[in-house]
Each structure stands twice: as structure tokens, then as C-alpha cells.
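Need the bound structure for adenosine-5'-diphosphate, inputs here:
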Amino acid sequence: MIKDDQVPITSRVTLQPDPRLLRSLGRNHDLPSALADLVDNSIDAGARHVRIRFVRRDNRLVRLYVTDDGRGISSAAINTAMTIGGVRRYGPGELGHFGLGLKAASFGHADELTVVSKTADGSYTGRRWTLEGAQSGFECDVVDQDFARRELATQPPAAGNDSGTIIRWDSVRTFPVVHDERETNRFFTETVEKLRRHLGLVFHRLLAAKVVEILIDEFDADMDAVGSAVPVESLDPFDYAHSGHPEYPKTLQVVSDPPHQLVCHLWPPRSTTRQFRLNDRPERHQGFYVYRNGRLIQAGGWNGVIHDAKDLQLARVVVDLAPGSEAHVRLNPEKSRIEPDESFVRALQQAAGEDFTFDDYLDDARALYKRGRRREAQRPRVIPPGRGLPPAVKRALRTELRPIPNEEPIDIRWGRVDGDVLFDIDRDARQLTLNRNYRTVVTGSTTGSLNDAPLVKTCLYLLVENIFQGHYMGSRDKDNMDLWQSVLTAAVRAQQ
Ligand SMILES: Nc1ncnc2c1ncn2[C@@H]1O[C@H](COP(=O)(O)OP(=O)(O)O)[C@@H](O)[C@H]1O
Ligand SMILES: [Mg+2]
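Answer from helper R.:
Posting the output first, comments after.
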């Protein structure tokens, strides 16, 4: 009798893959993750500068370049580089992995991929894959060397360097097809924003350490003119002004092979910064931030260790993958997520420090979130400030205090005030006026601007905001006003 846990075999047949399978290659890549894969290659090649360039013709985007000043691809190496799944030996710090990124990222978006490259010994080389050629028997085109030379002489930053590589996409399927200026502008602006966010996040460590600089621009082929380049800035998901809890971040040990560490952070509650929001609901970004060689692979998510929960939104954990972790932690092909095996998930669950466990951390995260909510509920609502304060202060106030709905904001400005007192309030006009005679003393400068003296204005706002509420000024309010006026006027004069 045959046991059913063994599948019986009689013989073997060879089934070659159909080249048409290439159609499905890279389809899970959106444009930002595809370009991140190309930037990985540039960084592996030691590039200091990467330029992403969109080319516009007849009011339509027609081509894309990713150009770097890395060490380039030699004519001996280019065939392997263009081979789908062609892996080479990787150094310890490299971002390459599957031998697939360049081809998958490109075919996911374009029907034509051209690679031209120059190396420091002065040689030029180039190959082109068209989706059609690849599908009819993996036929790859050899690019004319003069063309390679011309391209490399015109595209920065390769143009200004001895070596470098251009990745060029033509027939890009994911660009809008209409010849419409407004539609093209809209797409371009949105795409640049998405790219800055994604690349800024994925490469935030490398950008902050100035390992690489990434610029995005647009070339208008009809006008023969380049628009201004937009830099990708580091977007650090751990960049809070101060920790949400004085004892954090805390480090836990993961008993895995090789061993890992969890650096557990707690964000301060209710942050409105880009670094916390990451352009989404904050509860979407809790969990593990997994890095491989300084590149962020996964931005949040608990990988089956626990479930997402609203009250864990302040919890973010740094995991740096150790060399040799590949046996237990795989990357998905888009390099946007790790796929840990069961033993690694268990090791994560059991991560601990001295008398401190992963569960304790989660408890602290929940408690902090709850405290933040309670504090918010107990605080009285306020009339928000209007003109006169810098945006950063208004943002901070919005984070801490909830506004009373449908109230005209309070403008804070310098102006004429009767007598020598520091300020005056006009409840009906919703104005807090600072005595302009003290402006130079307070700001230390004779030329003022709308949002000057933020410290004094903010303190005054916090002091008097309550007076603007309600229909009349009670005796308590009047007495407070008298108190503040006499003390603060003495103070500003002492500063004179
Ligand atoms: N910008 C570049 N500069 C130098 N070499 C490159 C560049 N892009 C790709 N390559 C070469 O092509 C190879 C294949 O790239 P890719 O398909 O992304 O796979 P992987 O990065 O996993 O090796 C790389 O290993 C590298 O040798
Ligand atoms: Mg790669």
C-alpha cells in the first residue's frame, strides 16, 4: 500500500518556460518601488549622485532616465547584468539580491529597457531589451557604442564623470497617454511627490549620511530645456523631537541564528509630523522597520508576530537584518517586505531584555496611547490662532489642543495700543494686538515680519485665549487682565 504522505513518481519531463512569462514580470512594482530598485543598483555601484529624469515631448511624458556616476558596467559584465535572474557574487554590504531587480522593475513599467554604461578605463557598452525581443526567444540587442557615448555625454551625473550608467525606459506604459499639458503636469507633480516620499523613506539613512544624493527633474524635448531639479530628502520614521516615554528607546535581544536586536521606540502621542504620518493614517505604520545594509525594506507591519491595533500606533521597532539572516528571513521580490520563517517569528515574539519583554513593550505602547487620548479629552477646547504665528507653532498648537468648531481665529499682530501697556485685546474683532512701541525691544530687530516674536506671541496667546471665549468678560477675567498687563509691562520695560 502507498502511504499518502509521499507522492509517487514514474519519470521526468523537461518543460521550458514560455518567454511570454516576461509579461508578468515586475507587475507588483509601482513606480516608486521600481525606481527604488534602480537606485539600489546605483548605490551598489558606488554612485554618489543619481538623477531621475522624465522626458516630455508634445505635452506628454515619453521616456525616463535614471543616471548615476557609479563605477559602471564593463563590457565583460553586461551580459550577465542583463540576464533575467543573472546573479553575480555580492559583496557583504550590497543591496542586490535576486539578479532580477533591473529587469523586473523596468518591464513592470516600460516595453523597452536600454542600459548604456562607461567604466573608468574609457570603454563604452550598451544593451537593449525590448519586451517583444525578449518574448521571442530572449533576443537582446547590442547598442551602438557611439550612441552609448553620446547618451553618456549628455546625461548628468554620468556626463561629468569618468564612469557611470544610464538606465533608459521607452514606451512607458504607466505614463498617461494623452497629449494634454494639464494632465501631464498633474501626473508629473503627483509622481514627483510620491517618489520623494518613497525614496526619502527607503533611503533615509543613506540620504542623511550623504552616501548618495538623488535628484528628480524633467527635460522638455520640444524646448530643449531642463526644469529645476528637486532633491529627495531623508524622511526618517524615527525622527521625533523627543521620545514618547523617557525610558525609550529600549533594546531587546532576539535569539535567532544569527542573533538580532529590536530597538523599540515609542512616538509621542498625536504627532502631526510627516515623519509620523507618512502620508497615511498613523495606525498603518506601527510595527517593524526592517533595514538591510542601511536600506529600509519594510516600513511597519508585525509579520504575524501580533496583529495591528489602533492602540499600538505609537510603536515602531528598528530591525537591522544581520549578514547571514537569509536562511530565515526572505525578502519579497519587490524588496518591500520581509518574509520570516516560523522560527524567526517565534524568536521575535520571545525577544527580551534584562527583566523586560516584547509584551512589556506593547503594554507600554498601549498605555502611552491611552494616556495621550485621555489628556486630549480632558483639555478644554480653544479658539485657534490666526495670522501672526509661524506654521510650525500653529501645527504644535493643533497637535496639543482641539479647536472649538466654527470660531473665527485670533489674529496676533503689532499695532497701536493706548498707553504704555504691552498688549490689548479686541474680543469682537478677534485681535490680540502687541504694542508696536516695544517691537524692537522684543524682537531685537528694527525690521519686523508678520510671524516675528513667536515666543512672546505664543505665551500671550496661551495666557489670554480664554478671554476671547464667552459673551462677556467676567470680573475674574478683568482682574487677570489687570494682573498680566501690569506685570508684563514691567517686564518688557525691564528688557529695554
Ligand atoms: N546602475 C548600475 N551601475 C552598475 N551596475 C549595474 C547598475 N545597474 C545594474 N547593474 C548590474 O546589473 C546587475 C543586475 O542588476 P539587477 O537586475 O538589479 O539584479 P541584482 O541587483 O539583484 O544583482 C547588477 O548586479 C549589477 O552588476
Ligand atoms: Mg538590483
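Comments: The radius of gyration is 30 Å. The pocket of adenosine-5'-diphosphate (ligand 1) is lined by residues 41-42, 45, 68, 70, 72-73, 81, 88, 96-103, 165 (CB under 6 Å).
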